[in-house]
Specification:
Rossmann fold; three-stranded antiparallel sheet; about 350 residues; Dehydroquinate synthase-like, alpha domain; 13 helices; alpha/beta; binds glycine; 2 domains; globular
Length: about 350
Amino acid sequence: MRSITITTENKQSHVLIGERLQNLRSYLPDGKVIIITDDNILRYYAADMPPFPIISIGTGEKHKTLETLVHIFEKLIEHEADRTTYIVGIGGGIVCDVAGFAASVYMRGLRFGFVSSTLLSQVDASVGGKNGVNFRRFKNMLGVFNQPEFVICDPFMLKTLEKNEFIAGFAEIVKAGAIKSAPLFEYLEANVDKALSAHEEVLEKIVYESVRIKADVVENDEKEKGLRRILNFGHTFAHAFENMSDLLHGEAVSMGMVLASRLSCKMGYLSKTDSDRIENLLSRLQLPVKPVVELRKAFEPMKQDKKREGNAVFMVFLKQIGEAVIEKITYKNLEEVLNDLC
Ligand code: GLY
């Protein structure tokens, strides 16, 4: 097991890579604990969970809502949760986002930790303290920054993932390499087959490196005032695509990164060779690289992005693999370059 500690202004968050769900008990304080998970995780792992009350939510992005929060709050009251109650979210990005938000606002905040069960949540979603839900058609519109005390990244839980869920996780790993680590990107290029077949050593290395990169960014800019925006590489497009389709987040991020790389090329930041390398790697990892929705139609949802500031949005471009740059670009300019690209 390897661990990474993320230290922010008022908290420390321990990410435990290679730890097991079965050891969860040893990270919990004495006293009342309540588990928040989903029906799918319960189907496979109920027997491995410590014997605490369980609140289960439905699976999928459609359950990342205020209604699900209301359900959780009602159950917390039913279980007589008080300020000393500890919350554990066990699941992927959606469970962790919702559980972290519920824990952060119930009675003005309870202590909480996660067991992260998908590749995407282990390398990105459950790490870094973003918790929240979607509202109307706006993704992650309601939420808080609040670090979980621990995140257990259990490699064995990846074995029960659907293939497309597992593969979707690679998008955020490619992102980590593309924005901040040429060595991670090159390692992935050299180990595609092993990564796809969930080779233990390769998986542990790429999860560890991705978390290390994210930890470094989050420690420097927890509340996304500047540097943390680089983690949104490809995400402005991705969120628009997700808004218009049933794509998994990682699939949409893959398409978004291809577009953002081409745009980086067009703006004169990135070489065509590097842009092609990104597209090739994603494609070799069996991720989709061509937008499934018409770009022109994606422009309106793009304007609803949280990162919007007036008539402009912060976009992340690449200068080379391993180096990103953040630029504020007006929607008018973005539309022009996108139209050129179409
Ligand atoms: N997933 C982007 C972030 O955590 O900032």
